Amino acid sequence: MSDTLPGLFLGQSDAAQPENLLFNRANRHGVVAGATGTGKTVTLQIMAQGFSDAGVPVFCADVKGDLSGISQVGAPNDKLIARAAEMGLTLTPRAAPVVFWDLYGQKGHPIRTTVSEIGPVLMARMLNLNEVQEGVLTVVFHVADKEGLLLLDVDDLRSLLVYVGENAERIGREVGNVAPASIAAIQRALLQVEQQGGDAFFGEPALKLEDMIRVGLDGRGQVNVLDSTRLMNSPRLYAAFLLWLLSELFEQLPEVGDPDKPRMVFFFDEAHLLFNDAPRALLEKVEQVVRLIRSKGVGVYFVTQNPADVPDTVLAQLGNRIQHALRAYTPSEQKGLKAAAQSFRTNEAFDTAEAIQALGVGEALVSVLDEKGAPTIVARTKIRPPASRLGPATDAERAAIMAASPVRGLYDQVLNRESAAEILANRHSAADQAEAQAQAQAKAQAEADKAAAVQAKADQKAAEARAKAEAQAEARASRAAATPARRSTRETPVEALTKSVLRTAGSTLTRELMRGILGGLKKR
């Protein structure tokens, strides 16, 4: 059996029949399920490289780090070679054309988008907000649009939250109540995302989808591997990012109907993270994107442990199904096993529920869509061995791949153009300057008023003193005019001579009289 069979060769069934996923039905989506250690990652690797060989670009998340081996030439062991021989498969080791991506920019090229592009619904999911807080966040985005404030990074969102909080009364009259408690809750949630390194996801230059949807000169599609080993520590950020990427593909790609092969295939590993505790609005968005993105030529494949992790409304859109082994020890696991078995078309040769539990590593139950778009009867299938390496690439090998990447240098440097944070900071600066100027003017005016008051008081005192002096002068003049002139007591020379003559005469007369009297007495 050769690789020229129509569609993507998945493996060989127990009936020695090839199981092929038809390329013209690959955009009808699918699911790869199975317990840990049953071979889901290898199946994902085979499918990703198979699509790439057919000229279809692929995006997949590397949760454990071992999917990075798709970038290296395989070194099949005797067991893999024997399995390939059983299938009549000519196993030619080769690597896929890989571009490594990493939201944190450590093990791949950075991936960024703006806060505005992520939108309030996904941002609320990322921040784990309740309905009231999500409503306030929607108001924040509305204010940004209305006032022309670009939301590019986390600093912009934080600045706008402060702005909305400061103007809550005015904004509340226009769009509804904005509670300060909700603003504070959003700020705390944003701080947690920053502490987890999620702020690296927001900013510019933003990812251009054409840098992922590439086909090389050799006709092979680019395999975009997102390193998610660290990202998985922030499951809400992981889920929000992948859903954002799906939404961007849906919004930007034109309608193509049902092409001969997909324009791109998207693998969503650990899919249960998207749906756990997801609000109804988010589930409706996922369902809408999955249902409609098919017409854009994009195939979406959910990789999870149990199909029951995917809501029925979404699961109903997944036509191609690959089910690895499931274990059913608890009632909930038994319920999931039953649901998984009932999702296949019955094969009279075996009991589907029992077969799922009995599958070995590298085996799966496969049901794909046929030429008419109907699911095929489920078949127990041995999955083909991969052509690329089983196991992770080394750091040196990863660095070599990144050095030769077609997007090397495009996203390494962060851009920080004027946006909400800078605009609001300038507003605050202008307001502070205006306030400082007003305060300075008020102070100068107060000092001038004080000086004027002091001068006025001094002038009043001087005027009062002059008035008092004038009043006293007038009083003295009035008294002087009312009192007659007094005669001088100083004796003139004539008066003094006259007074002296009179005194002398008086003294002489007195002596003479006294002598006369005394003399008369003596004669008796």
Low-confidence stretches: 1-5
Based on DSSP secondary structure assignment, what is the total number of beta strands? Answer: 12
User: What Rg do the Cα atoms give?
Assistant: 51 Å
Helix content: 40-55%
Helices and strands: which structural class? alpha/beta
Q: How would the global form be characterised?
A: rod-shaped
What is the average per-residue confidence, as pLDDT, rounded to a whole number? 88
**Span from first to last CA?**
207 Å
Strand content: 5-15%
Number of helices: 16
Main-sheet strand order equals 2-1-12-11-10-3-9-8-4-7-5-6
Query: Tell me about the biggest sheet?
Result: 12 strands, mixed
**H/E element order:** EEEHEHEEHHHHHEHEHHEHEHHEEHHH
Descriptive overview:
This protein is α/β, with parallel strands linked by helices. The protein is built from 16 helices and twelve strands. The chain has helices spanning 40-53, 78-86, 115-127, 131-146, 154-166, 168-175, 180-195, 235-252, 272-275, 280-292, 312-315, 331-342, 352-358, 395-403, 420-482, 493-523, and strands at 8-13, 18-21, 30-33, 58-62, 98-102, 109-110, 223-227, 264-269, 298-304, 320-323, 363-367, 379-383. Strands 2-1-12-11-10-3-9-8-4-7-5-6 form a twelve-stranded mixed beta sheet, sandwiched between helices. A hairpin with a 4-residue loop joins β1 and β2. α3 (115-127) runs antiparallel to α8 (235-252), α5 runs antiparallel to α7 (180-195) and α5 (154-166) runs parallel beside α15. The chain is rod-shaped and about 200 Å long. The N and C termini lie far apart (207 Å).
